[in-house]
């Protein structure tokens, strides 16, 4: 398909066609380089990566595994010096260790400790080559690794709760580490919020719990079985629910990292509730308070909002960072209900456009708790914060198709949520399609936007509509914002979201159900090209695309788990990024426009 009229600023590039190449494929006229990959040195004294000879001590100083969220914090007006903050979501030990050295039934303690050190986040000083465009990781005083051994402070109304006390921490206020950090955001005050997502998979011993209340709580959060996949409970009792029944409650929070201060203690904010937080994104309210949006990424789970009581102070100073961070510990937690405006009969479960021409409607934010006050019958405030899913169940929110990243659009003020997929919708005994989740057997996901009433992030009501119902544009059950479907790139399983300066949405995908590789896509959300999805890059074999960061002259994409479809490291399916016969390594890639002095080449502008 050709380009209609004048292209929208930021999206004028030739779309990358769907493909299955073991490479990062970018548009004509663009350059790329790997910024940092698993095992590369981060902090002083870090040895060079040695796949054959890994140690926990080395990994704790090197870039961790499975990069997901990427935050870029400029340190000068040109964006030459930047702090980079990257999440390391999870480990796959069968790919991390040389063939024949990792026994899934009997991992060694050394291997478990390498896994702990490969989690968390990295803070990395970077330098942008102003002429050639590449972004390089360099030594810096802010460089830091946060791992499963780093001390975190629990804050907010549930800090010190009886549900959070363990034998290692009788105060219920100090947690060792963070895990399964998925998407996130850079706050307006220059810190990073990160969601602890699939926390359940690391714990053993759930099936020893017989108390029905405790067992129901574990089940609602997906804790199950005897042994965990990684068997960490053999080496540290905190991973054994039979011995440390409260340790699971100390994960599943939104964490905050201050990358400017390498000695700061990272925070877990209990007022934002405990669930499988995909991410957390801030929007300032009309009267200067702080709203935080977060999705719970599991089938039929909910979208939440927190609104602070106190007002935001502008700037990135140490004082502003401390002040604004404390705002997240005093406010109100809400859960969202999305109501359609077309008769249910018009939502036929295969995504056919309803009679009024749009998947749209209104919504409301239902309060769950504020400080020590609960709004949910039968739940104390402490219950609401620690067992948020069960509290939300009581107030009738909308069960969504796996809420992944949520991001406010800095140009039009609306808020966007990626709903990645839900193949269980419409299955026997499960919820059926509704206007906000309009497809049964939803393999390809959709993207929803809402506008808070009065444009105020503190509003308790909003209007919403779908931007995209993803999939093969030739299929009847897809919708691209009303744009001509013969011109768009196919897109499947939207996950992480970002906006460029022009207000175009950028979507990275995880789990392409159309047979080609995941990638990064741009889409205008206003004007005549609303819904015109174009693929900007594709990722290697077995990888999902995370990040992303889109500035005026740079795109960053995190390539997570290249080659994960392989049985083990004995037979790699991907050799990205090092090529040849190399083992695949999760890595961060920078993309810029060539043919101009680096910083002058504008993304998507010709
Ligand atoms: Fe870690 Fe919901 O993706
Ligand atoms: Ca409608
Ligand atoms: Ca995700
Ligand atoms: Ca993902």
From TrEMBL:
Residue numbers spanned by region Disordered: 562-582
One Pfam family per UniProt: PhoX
Domain of life assignment: Bacteria
InterPro entries assigned: PhoX, TAT_signal
Protein known as: Phosphatase
Naturally occurring in which organism (per UniProt): Amycolatopsis antarctica
């Amino acid at each position: 398909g050709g380009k209609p009229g004048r292209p929208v600023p930021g999206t004028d590039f030739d779309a990358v066609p769907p493909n299955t190449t073991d490479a990062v494929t970018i548009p004509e006229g663009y350059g790329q380089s790997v910024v940092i990959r698993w095992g590369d040195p981060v902090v002083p004294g870090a040895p060079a990566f040695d796949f054959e000879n890994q140690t926990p001590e080395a990994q704790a100083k090197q870039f961790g595994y499975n990069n997901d969220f990427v935050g870029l914090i400029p340190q000068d007006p040109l964006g030459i010096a930047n702090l980079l903050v990257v999440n390391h979501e999870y480990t796959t030990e069968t790919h991390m260790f040389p063939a024949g050295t990792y026994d899934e039934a009997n991992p060694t303690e050394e291997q478990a400790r390498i896994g702990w050190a490969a989690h968390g986040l990295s803070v990395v000083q970077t330098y942008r080559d102003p002429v050639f465009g590449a972004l390089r990781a360099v030594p810096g005083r802010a460089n830091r690794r946060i791992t499963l051994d780093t001390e975190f402070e629990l804050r907010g109304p549930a800090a010190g709760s009886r549900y959070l006390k363990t034998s290692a921490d009788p105060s219920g206020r100090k947690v060792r580490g963070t895990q399964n950090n998925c998407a996130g955001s850079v706050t307006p005050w220059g810190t990073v919020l990160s969601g602890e997502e699939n926390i359940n998979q690391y714990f053993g011993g759930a099936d020893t719990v017989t108390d029905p209340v405790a067992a129901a709580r574990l089940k609602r959060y997906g804790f199950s079985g005897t042994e965990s996949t990684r068997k960490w409970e053999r080496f540290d009792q905190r991973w054994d629910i039979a011995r440390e029944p409260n340790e699971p409650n100390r994960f599943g929070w939104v964490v905050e990292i201050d990358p400017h201060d390498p000695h700061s203690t990272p925070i877990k904010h209990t007022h934002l509730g405990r669930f499988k937080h995909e991410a957390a994104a801030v929007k300032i309210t009309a009267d200067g308070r702080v709203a935080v949006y977060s999705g719970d990424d599991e089938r039929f789970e909910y979208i939440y909002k927190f609104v602070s009581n106190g007002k935001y102070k502008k700037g990135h100073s140490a004082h502003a960072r401390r002040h604004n961070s404390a705002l997240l510990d005093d406010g109100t937690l809400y859960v969202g209900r999305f109501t359609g405006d077309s008769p249910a009969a018009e939502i036929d479960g295969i995504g056919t456009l309803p009679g009024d021409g749009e998947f749209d409607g209104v919504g409301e934010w239902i309060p769950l708790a504020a400080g020590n006050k609960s709004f949910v019958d039968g739940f104390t405030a402490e219950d609401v914060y620690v067992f948020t899913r069960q509290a939300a169940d009581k107030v009738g929110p909308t069960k969504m198709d796996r809420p992944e990243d949520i991001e406010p659009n800095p140009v039009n003020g609306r808020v966007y949520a990626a709903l990645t997929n839900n193949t269980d919708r419409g299955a026997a005994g499960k919820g059926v399609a509704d206007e906000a989740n309009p497809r049964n057997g939803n393999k390809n996901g959709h993207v929803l936007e809402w506008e808070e009433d009065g444009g105020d992030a503190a509003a308790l009501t909003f209007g919403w509509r779908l931007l995209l119902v993803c999939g093969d544009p030739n299929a009847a059950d897809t919708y691209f914002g009303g744009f001509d479907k013969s011109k768009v790139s196919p897109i499947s399983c939207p996950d992480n979201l970002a906006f460029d300066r022009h207000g175009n949405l950028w979507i990275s995908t995880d789990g392409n159900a159309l047979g080609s590789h995941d990638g990064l896509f741009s889409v205008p959300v206003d004007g005549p090209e609303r819904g015109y999805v174009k693929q900007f890059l594709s990722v290697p074999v077995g990888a999902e695309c995370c990040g992303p960061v889109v500035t005026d002259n740079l795109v960053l994409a995190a390539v997570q788990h290249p080659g994960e479809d392989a049985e083990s490291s004995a037979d790699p399916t991907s050799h990205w990024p090092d090529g040849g016969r190399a083992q695949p390594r999760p890595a961060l890639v920078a993309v810029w426009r060539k043919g101009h002095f680096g910083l002058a080449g504008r993304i998507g502008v010709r």
